[in-house]
Amino acid sequence: MGVVLGGLEAVVGEHGVDIVVEGETVRRTDREALWPISEVFHRKYPDVVEHEVDDDGTVRSSEGGEAVLLRVALAKALGFGRVEDGFSQTSWRFGDG
């Protein structure tokens, strides 16, 4: 079971929401899947260093960093809200889970 964390401050304003996603993860190594994502990332963040997708599916930056792409088959998600007067939380289940 893999877990991916992310914050969504830009989506909900200054208070924000943290999301935890659980599910089976599979590393994607096919260039057909990696190139479009790489290009979208570069368009959104043009000031980030240049990068290349290797034949083994590793994304390498011109500064020596590496990244891999994981596909997550969602099983469960948890949302933790930070609101002005406290906190909130909720959960979602996907598929048979």
Q: Outline, from the CA principal axes?
A: flat
Query: Can you tell me the number of structural domains?
Result: 1
Query: How many strand segments?
Result: 7
Task: Give the C-alpha Rg.
Answer: 16 Å
Head-to-tail CA distance between termini: 12 Å
Could you tell me the strand content as a percent range? Answer: over 45%
Number of helices: 2
Which residues form runs of ≥5 with pLDDT under 50? Answer: 8-12
Main beta sheet strand tally, sense and closure = 4 strands, antiparallel
Strand order of the largest sheet: 1-2-6-7
SSE order, one letter for each helix or strand: EHEHEEEEE
What structural class do helix, strand and pairing data support? alpha+beta
Helix share bin: 10-25%
Average per-residue pLDDT, rounded, comes to: 76
Describe the structure.
The protein is an alpha+beta fold and 97 residues long. The protein has one domain (2-93). The protein contains two helices and seven strands. The protein has a four-stranded antiparallel sheet. A hairpin with a 2-residue loop joins β6 and β7 (86-93). The radius of gyration is 16 Å and the shape is flat. The two termini are 12 Å apart.
Itemize the secondary structure elements and their pairings.
Elements: E1 2-7, H1 9-12, E2 17-28, H2 31-44, E3 51-53, E4 59-61, E5 66-67, E6 69-83, E7 86-93
Antiparallel strand pairs: 1-2, 2-6, 3-4, 4-5, 6-7
Task: Name the features.
97 residues; alpha+beta; 4-stranded antiparallel beta sheet; 3-stranded antiparallel beta sheet
Concise summary:
The chain has 97 residues and is α+β, with helices and mostly antiparallel strands. It has helices spanning 9-12, 31-44; strands at residues 2-7, 17-28, 51-53, 59-61, 66-67, 69-83, 86-93. The protein has one domain (2-93).
